[in-house]
Amino acid sequence: MSKLWLIAKDEFRRNVYKKSFILALLSVPLMLAFNVGIGLIVENLEKDSTPIGYIDHSGLLDHPVSAYDENASAAVPIIAFTSEEAARQALLAKEIQAFYVLSADYLATSDVELFYMEEPAGNATSQWYDFLQANLLANYPPEIAHRLIEGTRMTIRSPGGIIEMPAGGPTLSTMLPLITSVAFVFLLLFSSGYLMSGVIIEKENRTIEVIVTSVSTTDLVVGKVLGIVAISLTQLATWILIAVLTVAVGGNLLGLTWLQDLSINWIAIAKVVVIALPSYVFAAGLMFTVGSTLTEAQEGQAVGSLFFMLHILPIYMIVMIVENPLGIQTTLLGILPFTALLTTGLRSIFTDIPLWQITLSAAVQTMCAVGALWLASRAFRLGMLRYGQRLRIRELFRRQPSLAERRAS
Amino acid sequence: MHVVEIQHVAKSFGPVQAVTDVSFEVDRGEIFGLLGPNGAGKTTTIRLLLDIFKPDRGTVSILNGPMNDAKNNLIGYMPEERGLYQDTPLERCLIYLSTLKGLSTTEAQSRLEPYLERFDLAKHKHKKVKELSKGMQQKAQIINTILHKPELVIIDEPFTSLDPLNTQLVKDVMRSLRDQGTAILMSTHQMHQVEELCDRIVLIDEGRDVLYGPLDDIRRRFSGHAVLVRAAGALPHIEGVVDTARHNNALKLTLASGVSPQQVLQDLMANDVTVEKFEIAVPTLDEIFIRVVKEGGQ
User: Fold this and answer.
1) Could you report the predicted ipTM of this complex, rounded to two decimals?
2) What is the pTM of this model?
3) Among A172, A234, A265, B75, which is 20 to 30 Å from B205 by CA?
4) CA-CA distance, A318 to A347, in Å (whole number)?
């Protein structure tokens, strides 16, 4: 096995057994499980199949028509009472969760009184209004009445037609590019953090001095990066697997509506990935550089926090991005290193990002990645074994004398 | 052909001039001492040798040419500080580092077993490195340096943290390697170990080589400055003696520059002194070191 692969294998093995890796691996699934759990709780809290009652003084409901399928499991029976006293007794006996009183001049004033001890569940309230509307529209043909009650289902589309969103707001499908970019941001922060701390620790315990006299700088740098890439792929594969399981379990078994009918906009996701890959290498190169130049792990953590802040900067500018996803400032954020990845994910929800902007952004990230790798190699050579002595930035860019020049001098 | 040839190298880090001008050679089958006070530039010189740093000036030849990646497997290097993964079990750590030196895992394992036995580390091989004592870590480090049978061993302070028994063991190992033709470059502050082991030395001070050559020659060179004399009765005044001090059962006469021991002996004889003992005071390496470094004189 070549030394490069030995380094990669060791880097992988050294990190995957760390508690921090296990935590990072589980953080996203736990977040997903938390969201699904919260969704389930909220949905269940909003449901109560205890009947609701009404007293109609207006005569509208003398011959009521049903708006709801009363056989459905979520249906709430609607019971007519002849007097408020009878309804009150039923409420106190908890036979009903609430009752409504339609005034005699309801049709003119739309006055309705509601009596309850605990606020009625969301499904009961909406069912009552559906029932009321169905009876108000009882003289219309059923399909017209149904359409009026259901309202309009509007879909908002981008001019190119690639981005579409329900009028009610983004769905999970439209959020997928953002989720992808957030996943990559986490991935690059975690893994480049491993890389940096690994380099600093090896520098601190002087292992690096033995390593650099055993393998070439290229094998060392590339091997470590490959090891970290393998860790990231493990993380990514685990997250994808858990996401698929979540969709399957949450959507099909638990019946969570927001996980059903999930469609994937591959083009938008591809645009994010095109920017994510060089951004990943850029972050890894920078963290390696930092690891090579710093002298203590604590300093590394401080720099890591700064990198984190830079990467999540678009979150603080979310209003600007949402309001004007094709504006100059937003476009710039989508091109600049650090902010490009998350900005692209956010913009993808609201607009179809022009291809030239994606290409330009990917090119900028690629150039930065190449520069960061060059810098990492330089910093490693110059700063690796300077214990207690910080490497100056200008030294990184100073030309080294050639063998002939050294001989001549 | 020298195994190591370093000519007029210089290296600075920003404003700090770590090495100003150092030259020396190391040959096959010798133990060579690289000496110098703290901060003299020894470690930087070793790193220049290993191509960890590029020199600003001068040339370095190692195993017949400039250092390259192909030569990594032919060199064993033990830095002064521990260079082992602290959270890794000892055996796994040593096998991994050996595979980076070109051994297969099986080969590394089979070579490691006898060394672990010999260095009394076999029963600790599953412990994490950080759980071992400093002496054990030092022994592990030495094993790591020589396991792949290098042609050149560069070893920085090999006897740190070792008890007399293990010190003797390491010395035996070093002598055995030398007898097999391995070139050993040893950097240490323990002068008595250098006197016992090294054939030749270079002394670096403030980034320059200030003393270089075979150990015997150097001691001879410095020995002319004093003689040990035991005589019946008091000594008369002798020309050229600048200081007289008691030394065990004799007197140590420090001679002025240009005065030879023969002249002193002739003077003693001329003064009818009954000389019971006359011996050239051979300085210890410690004394030479202190004289060269503190007094700056040879």
Assistant:
1) 0.78
2) 0.70
3) B75
4) 9
